[in-house]
Structure formats: structure tokens, C-alpha cells
Amino acid sequence: MTYPLHPEASHFVNGRYLEDTTGTPLDVIYPATGEVIAHLFEATPAVIEQAITSARAAQKDWAARSGTERGRILRRAADIIRDRNHDLSVLETHDTGKPLQETLVADATSGADALEYYGGLAASLTGDHIPLGDGNWAYTIREALGLCVGIGAWNYPTQIACWKAAPALACGNAMIFKPSETTPLSALKVAEILVEAGLPAGLFNVVQGAGSVGAPLVTDPRVDKVSLTGSVPTGRKVYAAAAAGMKHVTMELGGKSPMVVFDDADLDSAVSGAINGNFYSSGQVCSNGTRVFVQNGIKEAFLARLAERLRGAIIGDPLDQATNFGPMVSAGQLGIVERYIAKGIEEGARLVAGGKRVDRDGFYIEPTVFADVTDDMIIAQEEIFGPVMCVLDFDDEAEALARANDTEFGLAAGVFTADLTRAHRMVQGFEAGTCFINSYNDAPVEMPFGGVKMSGVGRENAKAAIDHYSQLKSVFVRMDACEAAF
Ligand code: NAD
């Protein structure tokens, strides 16, 4: 590959790579082998200060440019990403351990989609003209927020960086992005490519580090907005810290989403949905449908077909394009998943597939299925964020909907049925921000994505994200004389 795995430096600030070796060392581990592939350093206060200063200095000029000009740069970056998709995918595979078979189609490409989409939208971002009668009128000016901070999770490092950067930059903001400390490599390439595409220095900066680097960014008074992708506990902390400064927030948090399979569903299609919604990226997807409710009449047929299809999982070297199931991102995440599997067994769920570590280096665990899971079990309530599917049984629609909604989370929900009216009725009843009918986990940039309840605030993607990266200034215009009581 063209890209060396070790980046030129740890951070990307003011249009170039920046190193500060006095920061806490940050080793990058390849999840497929456990080997250290890069030595980086967490951002020091001096690095954070440079990032904030350069972003603030660059933002006003950027916002003053025409949307057409901003959009052109984003679309150029999308083209560069597509041209280099293979190398970027290899890098993403090293960052995350996800199979190249996936990263080639779901990571840099989805980042490019976001840059292309918001690049196309940038020129049409306007306010409104509001006629008020008597010749008076008002208008609104759509303005950038200023400096936005993006904080990422480790499952989709390239995609998350682009899903935040593209709408932020299209609206005229600057962004400082802090990737997850587990997957720091990919976002640096996004920064490099944006500058190559013509983005002025300072508008997209990447600083590395854990929560201790994210926290001062969130509280800095020069920051206007925070967009976090992460877990609910982190979301609570970051939302509270941002609220103290009355900052705008977008919170893309965790879930324990339901997928409801009725007995009239196409069985193979439903099994595909369950596989996509539980085992893609080794189960490390926030919107996964990890509570699979299967109507009693087809439960055993569903489980039998699922077991058959699981034999198609090719677990191995993620760089081998035949591999379709890779390792967990880290030893820590593997440990969490192993503990949940042990808990499921202890709680009396029936282990029907997987459950064991794979006998090879790296952080591998088999795709795992529990049947006879009940709502009160911990494995049915808490987000595991690994390849553990819980299959629960149900009798009728009202019961399925009530149980599907009986969770603090509300990120996603899916339904498989041949009955069209029932599908839409279920979707109307789901307490979830993102729903799927006879499918699961599709996330095109044209469709808003996000959660309700504890799963988040705000939306990413589509035109909806524009409202979260811009604000309206209202202007009342009086055409006749202004009168007063005295
Ligand atoms: P995490 O919450 O541990 O960390 C997320 C990010 O927040 C990291 O970059 C971390 O360094 C940073 N962080 C931690 N404490 C912070 C603080 N006090 N201030 C500022 N930043 C802080 O999550 P994770 O383990 O990296 O990712 C997995 C979680 O992310 C899961 O819960 C998953 O569901 C969720 N997720 C959600 C979406 C979504 O779009 N809804 C997408 C992917 C992942």
C-alpha cells in the first residue's frame, strides 16, 4: 500500500502534521494480531491551544466564501477519497480490524458520500423570505455556528470523521476532531485529503487522545458546538459539560435496538437482516438490532436457518478479501463481550451458536447467538457492542411492540413482515430514531440518522444535519414609519 501505517505525526493542526512528544504515549494496536503498528502521543494543552487558535482564525473567512466555493472543495475531497479507496480501506482495517471486504465498501466510500452530498448542498444553504403584510417583511440569515468539536467512537473512524466534518464545513464552520484513542489513524488521512482538496489551513484539525483530551475541548468557551459519537455514559458527561456553556450538541449514542420478525416474513431475508444487524463489523455497530423478537410459530425454523447461514462466516485475516468476520477492536472490548456471554449462560439463555474465542492471535470471538432470552436478562437490556445476538419469542403484534419499546435506548428498530400495513403500524409505534422495514442497518447519507430517548439528541446526515451545524438570524424589516404609544 502507498500509505505507511505510521503517520507523519500524531496530530494535524493548521494545515499540517504536528508532533509533541511530551504528550502521553498512545500505541496503536492492530486488532487482528495484537501488534503495535504505530506510536503516537496524546495532545498536550499546547497542541489543543494551537488547534483552537488556528480554527478560530480560519473560520470567519471560510464562512464568508460562497457556498459554491466551499462545496467544490468538499466534492474534490470526495473524489480524492474515492481514488484512494483501496489504500484508505487497508488503513481503516489496520485501525479497526474490520475485514477489508467491509472497509472497501462501507468506510472511506461512505465518508466520500457525505463530502459529496454536503458539497452539493453547500450552495443552496439559505435563509427564508417571510412576507408579513402591510409591506413589512422579515428574512432569516443562515449562519455558521463557529468552531465545532467532533469526538469519535472507534467503530467507524473514517465515516464518523466525514459525517461530522462534511456538514460542519459546508455550513461554514471550523472543526477540531478528536478520534477515539483506540483508532487514531484514519482521521489524519481525512485531514490531509481535505487540505489537498483546497481546504484552507486550520479548518479541520485532528488532535489525539482519550477523554482527558476531549473534556477540555468540550468546556473551552471558544467552542460553539460539540458532536459526540460514543456511549450513553460518555454522552451524559459531555452533554452536561456542553450545557454549562450553552453549546449546541449532537449526541449519537448507544442502543439495544429491536428487530421484530413476524411469521409471514420471508425467512431468508429476515435471517439476512439479523446477520447484518448483529455480525457486521463483528457486532460493533451502534444501531445493531441485538434483540431479535421472533414470532413463536417460526422460531425454530428461524434458528435452524440462522445456524446454517452462520456456517458461511469466514473468520480470519481481515486483509484477505474472503474474510467476512474479523476481530473485536481491542483486548478490552473482547473482555467485555466474553463477560456478557458468560452472563447470558449464567442467566439461563440457550447458547445456540458461538460463544468461544477463536484460536488465533488477535481479539477474535465467534459470532454468538442466544435463544430463549427473556426481557429481564442483562444480555437483553445492556448494550454489549459485540457479536452477540439475543433471540426472544413473542405471540402477537401488540406484545412485540410493547416489549421492543421497553428499553431506555431508542436508536433504531426494524420489522420483517409481508403485511405492509402492519409494517408501517409497527414503525409508527417504535420509539426509535431510525427504522427499517424488511431490511436492517442501511445508512445512506440522504437519510437522517440518530436516536431518541437515551440514544441521543440531534441527527446526522441528510438535510437534517444542516440545522445542527448552522443557526438562523431573524431580521424584521419595517417599510413604513415606526410608531410608538408616546
Ligand atoms: P466511548 O463513549 O467510550 O468514547 C467515545 C469518545 O468519547 C472517545 O473518543 C472518547 O475518548 C471520548 N470521551 C470519553 N470521555 C470523554 C469526556 N469526558 N469528554 C470528552 N470526550 C470523552 O465510546 P466508544 O467505546 O469509543 O464507542 C462505543 C460506543 O459508541 C457504543 O456505545 C456505541 O453504541 C456508540 N456509537 C454510537 C454511534 C451512533 O451514531 N449513535 C455510532 C458508533 C458508536
Task: Tell me about this structure.
The protein has 2 domains: 11-253, Aldehyde Dehydrogenase, Chain A, domain 1 (3-Layer(aba) Sandwich), CATH 3.40.605; 258-437, Aldehyde Dehydrogenase, Chain A, domain 2 (3-Layer(aba) Sandwich). The protein has helices at residues 45-64, 67-83, 85-96, 100-106, 108-121, 157-170, 186-196, 211-219, 232-244, 267-279, 299-310, 331-347, 378-381, 397-405, 420-429, 464-468, and strands at 11-13, 16-18, 25-29, 36-41, 129-133, 136-144, 147-151, 174-178, 204-206, 225-229, 248-252, 258-261, 291-295, 350-353, 368-371, 388-394, 412-416, 434-437, 456-457, 470-477. The chain has 16 helices and 20 strands. The protein has 486 residues and is α/β, with parallel strands linked by helices. Helix 2 (67-83) runs antiparallel to helix 5 and helix 3 packs across helix 4 (100-106). The site of nicotinamide-adenine-dinucleotide has 29 residues, from helix 8 and helix 9. Residues 151-155, 178, 180-181, 210-211, 214-215, 218, 229-231, 234, 237-238, 252-255, 286, 383, 385, 411, 451, 456 line the site of nicotinamide-adenine-dinucleotide.
